[in-house]
Design brief:
mainly alpha; globular
Length: about 625
Amino acid sequence: MNPRPAHSPDGVHAGGTLASDAPAHGWHAFLGALDRAIGWLTEIPAALLVLADIVVMLAGVIARYAFHAPLVWGDELAGILFLWMSMLGAVVALRRGEHMRMTAFVGKAKPATRAFLDVLAIAAALAFLLLIVHPAYEYASEESFVVTPALEISNAWRAAALPAGVALMLAVSVLRLLRTAPTMRAVHAAAVVAAVCLAFWLLGPMLAPLGRWNLVIFFAGVVGACVFAGVPIAFSFALATFGFLALTTRTPLVVLVGRMDEGMSHLILLAVPLFVFLGLLIEMTGMARAMVQFLASMLGHVRGGLSYVLIGGMYLVSGISGSKAADMAAIAPVLFPEMKKRGADPGDLVALLSTTGAQTETIPPSIVLITIGSVTGVSIAALFTGGLLPGVVLGIALCCVVWWRYRHEDLSGVVKAKKGEVLRAFVYALPAVALPFVIRAAVVEGIATATEVSTIGIAYSVIAGLLIYRQFDTRRLLPMLIETAALSGAIIFIIGAATGMAWGLTQSGFAQDLAAAMERMPGGSAGFIFVSVIAFIVLGSVLEGIPAIVLFGPLMFPIARAVGVHEVHYAMVVVLSMGLGLFAPPFGVGYYAACAIGKVDPARGMRAIWGYLVALIVGLICVAAIPWISTGFLH
């Protein structure tokens, strides 16, 4: 997979670049103007919707805790704003080419083939949007008869976000198709997609009698072909599910839109954009830098000290942000220059940065943990509690590798910080260091929900940035809000598509067959965990964490309970396994994101990363074999 630019958290490019940056004239000038107009019509409202959600949730927190008068309409209004933000954010992500997409195979193709596959990815997304636009409109029309309980308005105000978002994505896809490729290439790509769709439609009468084999054809064949061809993962899922329901069942396609809406509308998912924005905010206000400088003052004089700081800094910062790439982008610029001055190999630095991303996947408020809670019903507080110690175990494993590699480091030019300097650094960093502990304590103790505590964290960071750290660049707020909307929209849209696909699999009886097969597996719970580790490492490298969790979480977690595996223990094993796949080359997008952030050629880190990956595997085995690591602090 390709990484997004270093300033953008968590994701990968989903399309090719413009054919030329030269001034356009005539028809291309018109298309460019139209594209910019759509940009303004989507980016500014999406940013304002993120801001509005923050304000509504913060008002609800203040009303509830300060005045003991909860806003009964607060969650409902936040939900309406959230769905609109998600759909507009998905439009922004599509326009920017930031929907998650696997490009490991596409990147190895010849330039002409790669260019064609980039255009084919746009054409495939366009095909789904053309197919779903009418069912989306029909779904919104049906919702007009539903009245919301608190605001007492038509639910069409909320549901209209779906056809509006689909229509805007349709327009963006057409513009991208016209602007990013020569005419003949665009025509060929559109013709290939149209021919495949027509072939499936003509074969429809032959598919229906195949029964369960259709699961292989659509959910393995179509999804696999689309993903490996570079089609964005959300659209790969959606195309396969649409084809399966339309050609092999009598299910009205409006049901697919309803299932996508259901997946995207869990209020707990509102924590996703709030924590993404919080992660960007702590970097902008200098809070992340303060934490790292404090750790460096304590450990900078020992061999491998700054590598230990990198591991500890990622652990702390991950307790504030919900975005791994945002964490890496906050840590790397502070430490890498000094580490390079000390003679550290840049390849080793990005290898360690990447593996700390995998190590801290379970550190609350992890977006993956929030997603697990949303789709499986596992307590968010229990997941947040259970995620702390597994991260420590994997961190210790990484520290062992650091100690071995840096045991002969020359520190002759390094001066140990005096106690007074360490104390001043601690006092300066204390407001920042306290924030992750406040977030965890508030959720774990049941004082506030994950969504509420994220708004508290945002308010806290704004005050700290303005009054304590004196770093608050208002010019960066709009780009940060737009970036939050784009990343959140891509994440929420893929959750919606994966929810629709998971529903299709469940309705087909696949869930029952999978449960029966897993329960008959030799080795009992140990065998089940072993198979899960292997499966989720592969899924993490191919599909990334969130779509894999939404797709397989509702299927696998009930099986885990049936074979006697604690759901929190299983969640930690699954998340760490996916993290290992996500941050391991050659397919893991996290590794390439770390390289982009560190500005290092990915080839330079390939050799160095294997020692760290072995350490992560050893740590993962410990977590999988000893349930107490995940569940010991739950009671």
